[in-house]
Sequence to fold (637 residues):
Amino acid sequence: MTKKKETIINVSLIVALLVVLYVMEHTIPSTAMIFTVLKKGAIYALVAVSMNLLNGFTGLFSLGQAGFMLLGAYTYGILTIPAEQREFVYMYYDGGIIHFSVPVVVALVAAGIVAAAFAYLIGLPVLRLKSDYLAIATLGFAEIIRAIFQWDKLGPVTNGSNLLKSYPTFKSVLFPFIVSGICIAVIVMLINSTYGRAFKAIRDDEVAAEAMGINLAHHKRIAFVVSSFFAGISGALLAMYQTTIQASMFKSAMTYEILLIVVIGGIGSVTGSCLSSFLFIILSEWLLRFLDSDMYIGDFHVPLLRAGFRKVVFSVIIMIIVLFFRKGIMGTKEFSVRGIYNFFTRKKKAAKGGDSND
Amino acid sequence: MTNVLKVENVTMQFGGVVAVDNMNLEVNKGEIVSLIGPNGAGKTTAFNVITGVYAPTNGAVYFNGTKIIENHPQGKMKKLYKGENNGKYSSVLAPTPDKITKMGIARTFQNIRLFKSQTVFENILIAKHLRRTSNLFTATFHLNGKEEAEMRKQTEDLLRILGLEDVKDEMATSLPYGKQRRLEIARAMATEPTLLLLDEPAAGMNPQETEELTAFIGRIRDEFGMTIFMIEHHMDLVMEISDRIYVLDFGKPIAAGTPEEVQNNPRVIEAYLGGAVDE
Ligand SMILES: Nc1ncnc2c1ncn2[C@@H]1O[C@H](COP(=O)(O)OP(=O)(O)O)[C@@H](O)[C@H]1O
Ligand SMILES: [Mg+2]
Fold:
């Protein structure tokens, strides 16, 4: 299969996907569960891939994702609330101190930039830490950020512990798909570049990577900043999806959810993260909802089922995966047209071909 | 200046342990120089100082006539320092290992350190990263096609010259031991060094593999005009290809010279060869 043919197939598949989504939107009622799954799934796919860039490809065990999403969400909200709505949104702060708004696309990019800027600043001290300490420090950072954004003194900007709302959102499922798709494509291109190879070298063996002339501090920082940039954009998308922003949305539980997605999908697999995002959202928003509500069979009150039990089940799942299926669905393999093609041609010819994972 | 590497009064002390004790040595252009000595003599530590893994407690290192490393006892080492030449050095020059590699000193490790999840080809391709002219943006958006192609071509060429072409798509760790060692050397060569440091390249090899390795190292010197500084225990290998040998004992060079001179040096026989020759 030539490179050109592969590109044509890939592009056709993407176009086909968008057409299917478009058609679905015009035939299925918009309240259908499937749209929740698709929208949230696309957003989570982006943040999961951004986390995978750090944890899976660079070997940096960071747990700050929710914090960077919060930064992105707030940046987006603060910059896009229409000027005439501000006095209602910021009713406790005299309409706030910002009196302009910017276009959606500009705000999305700004969301990424603000998250990346914070990552740049904390990167220097934090990235020197070894694995577990890095996890603790980034988790702490996320919690501190959440507290700061709820701080009353910053209310004129962040609206304190009150909601941000009335900013532009999206209706069509195509919007998160296209934005996430573009962002994930950029991350994949980065991973496949010479910088991506350097990240993987650091993941495999820091000492050897440094001996190969790779500046550890510099490259870790790049991975951290880029990952945070895209986490920021996904935070903005999540804000659009939820239609309101509150700092308490971005608890560490959110980071654990994303970690769960990354681990299920395969640490070091982009397509794995994407697949498992949708899988996770299907399970948590749809199939396992019943775990959180009381249930009666006849007069029998089914034990355990009550608010919060879903979280318990997820914790058990993450333990089982870590103990028995450490590779997740995909391991470090990728799902690709070429891989499928190779798989079938190899079967047919029974000749030795390339691996199904390139 | 003909010496590529000059180690000057280097002492490396870990707490109270003096691992390298006032070491002085030189490696000249185009030479193969071996560093031998019993286990724990401080050989690997000397390499770690030269490559920037540790800043020496005292002393300096010169590369192609330029001072690249310098240090003097500081902090708690001020009190603990047991070495010589205290006070001779005053400035601090402590580049990280990646900077040293960029300058042109490449190394291998006593315990093989390959990139496990990558193929032979990819292991070598990574070494081309440090000579890049692209930046994050141009590399991500594949605007550096020419450079990328050049990196791959150089990798192919190196694999061919060093006889690893037939295994290039195999996972690095699936190679037989001897080939892993060679791959590690090839990877170091891919950084385009002028000085190559090999830490026990024949460790764990059988006589046949050792013989192949001897030829391999000779080829690297001849093909690339490489200067090689090598730690090794296999005396056949050392005696066959070394131009000069330094013998280290308790962190101090106790003898130096050509293979014949060293072999006949009574201090060396006493300290080292006596025990090791018949291993
Ligand atoms: N990082 C370190 N911390 C403390 N002691 C060390 C360290 N590295 C090496 N040493 C000590 O230095 C001495 C020399 O070790 P090494 O250079 O590995 O010997 P060789 O390579 O000649 O076998 C040993 O006593 C070793 O325990
Ligand atoms: Mg050693």
Summary: The radius of gyration of chain A is 22 Å. Residues 216-242 of chain A form the longest helix (27 residues).
